[in-house]
Design goal:
single chain; about 140 residues; alpha+beta; 3-stranded antiparallel β-sheet; two-stranded antiparallel sheet
Amino acid sequence: MIKNVLHKLVSILMAFVVLLSTLSFTVESHYCGEHLVDTAVFTKAKKCGTTVDADKSVVVKKSCCKDVVEIIKGQDKLKLNNFNDLDVANQFLITSFVYTYFQLFESLPKQIIPHKNYSPPNLVIDYQVLHDVYII
């Protein structure tokens, strides 16, 4: 029981490790002078002191502001194998192993248990203990 739960927990943990190691994202920060104004992950950071010219559609920044963009790249070198990339001997080995593995287990017909949903009656007096009768 504990072994199965631990196995499932480790499997889920490893799946999250693979997911997080391949995740890429950007962190954008906007500074006015030496003060941090905004930090944003996955979106643009809010700017301070920027004006947009309606006539020219140009953003004019103050000279004291600066943007810092950090790009955190995840790994992109996962090895994806295809069954067709294997040579014929390995394909034959894998298919024969899978076929024989599934033939190992014989399915039994489903048995009907008529008293499965019934609980035993409440024990008022245990006659074996009362009369000291034990079957050995």
